[in-house]
């Protein structure tokens, strides 16, 4: 095998609970360090599953996730199956499309097939002789006293460390909730999401593939990401209340006519009516908690620690980065769990909370601001300043997506530069008003002689809508 095997000297057992995206990557990290790794996944092996879900749900992979994959030698395999997206493509109601670049020239995010990514991660984990994949192992509970894990079917199992990667509704986290001074909050947003496939047209992508397409419509929006099979995966985000109003196929068409008319011929009216009711709209939850660890026995990572709304495309990226951060701390503190876990909480909690907050902020930005002239103007100003002062002014999206700047530092820097730029723009405005006034005084135009009261009433009249 190509993996570092320091395993002979160390026999500590690490149990990774949850063999999803973060769990499998994490397993590779621990195995690379030589631990004996047991992965417990409640589902069957998705690679053997007979019923493959009809459509592929895709994800945005960016710098943080890529760096984490790179550490275990998986970056190239994964990006070779991704589709680069350099810009958003904003679809206006009248059908016009306008691109807004994600970053500088050459910077892009990748559209990745979630199921394939999960399969690749499972196969990568399997190449390590010191990883055991235990499918159909649903964890029910674990004991904070003994560390023993209870599963639905098998007998209790012990490990030296339990890593909870079991997602937003983590069963591992349940025990944390009973501890004193454990903070926890969970928020459902009023929106749900629904997925619709846009098929190829004459064997080609129905829209330009190297974009993340967005139809912002204030209280709701639709996005579309390209797949390798030349389909697009459209996701409609809308308040549940609105979903409930669309009860029949005809109403779906009526709704799309009103808000996404350009998408109807691309998806096809019949397919649209069918896909819309294939599954009920799904809920989205944001979870924040602290601490991320319990003693030297257990640590929460990925969505189990910080599930977020999907509007920054960072959930998985943050979860992958978790693996990298823990790994860095393991290096610093010599793999001593009693020191590593508290340090991990100290370092990672502010970042997990910051990205959950930013994702919630982007929930508003994507729906509303991309339609506003001021927002677009500020985006151009930010990008321009970034070009002339690349180290000082960095657009928020760039810091989140194309760097590994700690998320909480990103938020701080963003607030700072927002203040500076707004003050700068105010200053420029003041200078031009002052300059203009000076010119007016210095070179007064010939004005009709109007008394001041009359001038005032004329100005008032200008405000009237007619
Ligand atoms: P999960 O992927 O949820 O995996 C948890 C695993 O644990 C599962 O395999 C589950 O079967 C298993 N499990 C659960 N309970 C138990 C148990 N009791 N015992 C044993 N096993 C158990 N992120 C991005 O970075 N980019 C995106 O573009 C993006 N888009 C998204 C779009 C949508 C609509 C949604 C909902 C999320 C999106 N995300 C995105 C977020 C991303 O999906 C998650 O952050 C990511 O899946 C988290 O991985 P995880 O391994 O922590 O959890």
From TrEMBL:
Its cofactor is FAD. SUPFAM superfamilies: FAD/NAD(P)-binding domain. Its EC number is 1.14.13.9. Pfam families: FAD_binding_3 (PF01494). One of its GO terms (cellular component) is mitochondrial outer membrane. Keywords: FAD, Flavoprotein, Membrane, Mitochondrion, Mitochondrion outer membrane, Monooxygenase, NADP, Oxidoreductase, Pyridine nucleotide biosynthesis, Transmembrane, Transmembrane helix. One of its GO terms (biological process) is 'de novo' NAD+ biosynthetic process from L-tryptophan. Residues 14-357 form the FAD-binding domain. It is a multi-pass membrane protein. It catalyses: L-kynurenine + NADPH + O2 + H(+) = 3-hydroxy-L-kynurenine + NADP(+) + H2O. Pathway: Cofactor biosynthesis; NAD(+) biosynthesis; quinolinate from L-kynurenine: step 1/3. GO terms for molecular function: FAD binding; kynurenine 3-monooxygenase activity. It is found in: Mitochondrion outer membrane. The keyword GTP-binding does not apply. It comes from the Eukaryota. PANTHER family: KYNURENINE 3-MONOOXYGENASE. Catalyzes the hydroxylation of L-kynurenine (L-Kyn) to form 3-hydroxy-L-kynurenine (L-3OHKyn). Required for synthesis of quinolinic acid, a neurotoxic NMDA receptor antagonist and potential endogenous inhibitor of NMDA receptor signaling in axonal targeting, synaptogenesis and apoptosis during brain development. Quinolinic acid may also affect NMDA receptor signaling in pancreatic beta cells, osteoblasts, myocardial cells, and the gastrointestinal tract. Belongs to the aromatic-ring hydroxylase family. KMO subfamily. This is Kynurenine 3-monooxygenase. It comes from Oncorhynchus mykiss.
């Amino acid at each position: 095998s190509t993996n570092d095997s320091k395993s002979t000297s160390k026999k500590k057992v690490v149990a990774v609970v949850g063999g999803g995206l973060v769990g499998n990557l994490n397993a590779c990290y621990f195995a690379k360090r030589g631990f004996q790794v047991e992965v417990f996944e409640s589902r069957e092996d998705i690679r053997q599953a007979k019923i493959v879900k009809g459509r592929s749900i895709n994800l945005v992979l960016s710098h943080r996730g890529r760096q984490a994959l790179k550490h275990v030698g998986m970056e190239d395999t994964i990006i070779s199956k991704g589709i680069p997206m350099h810009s958003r493509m904003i679809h206006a109601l009248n059908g016009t499309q306008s691109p807004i670049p994600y970053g500088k020239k050459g910077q892009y995010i990748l559209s990745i097939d979630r199921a394939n990514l999960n399969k690749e991660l499972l196969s990568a984990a399997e190449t390590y002789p010191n990883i055991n994949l235990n499918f159909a192992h649903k964890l029910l509970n674990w004991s904070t006293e003994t560390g023993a894990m209870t599963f639905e079917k098998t007998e209790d199992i012990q490990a030296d460390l339990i890593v909870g990667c079991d997602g937003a509704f983590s069963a591992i986290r349940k025990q944390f909730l009973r501890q004193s001074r454990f903070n926890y909050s969970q928020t459902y947003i009023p929106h749900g999401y629904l997925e619709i496939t846009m098929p190829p047209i004459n064997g080609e992508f129905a829209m330009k593939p190297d974009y993340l397409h967005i139809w912002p419509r204030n209280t709701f929006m639709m996005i579309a990401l390209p797949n390798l099979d030349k389909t697009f995966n459209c996701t409609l985000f809308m308040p549940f209340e609105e979903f409930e109003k669309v009860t029949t196929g005809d109403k779906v068409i009526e709704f799309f006519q009103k808000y996404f008319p350009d998408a109807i011929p691309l998806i096809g009216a019949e397919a649209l009516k069918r896909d819309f009711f294939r599954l009920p709209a799904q809920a989205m939850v944001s979870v924040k908690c602290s601490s991320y660890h319990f003693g030297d026995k257990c640590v929460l990572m990925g969505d189990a620690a910080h599930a977020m709304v999907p509007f920054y495309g960072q959930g998985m990226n943050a979860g992958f980065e978790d693996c990298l951060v823990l790994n860095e701390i393991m290096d610093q503190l010599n793999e001593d769990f009693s020191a590593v876990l508290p340090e991990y909480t100290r370092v990672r909690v502010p970042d997990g909370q910051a990205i959950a907050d930013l994702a919630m902020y982007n929930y508003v930005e994507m729906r509303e601001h991309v339609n506003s002239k001021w927002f677009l103007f500020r985006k151009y100003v930010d990008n321009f300043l970034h070009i002339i002062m690349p180290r000082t002014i960095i657009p928020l999206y760039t810091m989140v997506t194309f760097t590994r700047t700690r998320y909480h530092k990103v938020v701080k820097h963003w607030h700072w530069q927002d203040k500076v730029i707004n003050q700068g723009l105010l200053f420029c405005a003041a200078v031009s008003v002052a300059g203009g006034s000076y010119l007016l005084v210095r070179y007064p135009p010939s004005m009709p002689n109007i008394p001041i009261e009359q001038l005032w009433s004329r100005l008032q009249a200008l405000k009237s809508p007619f």
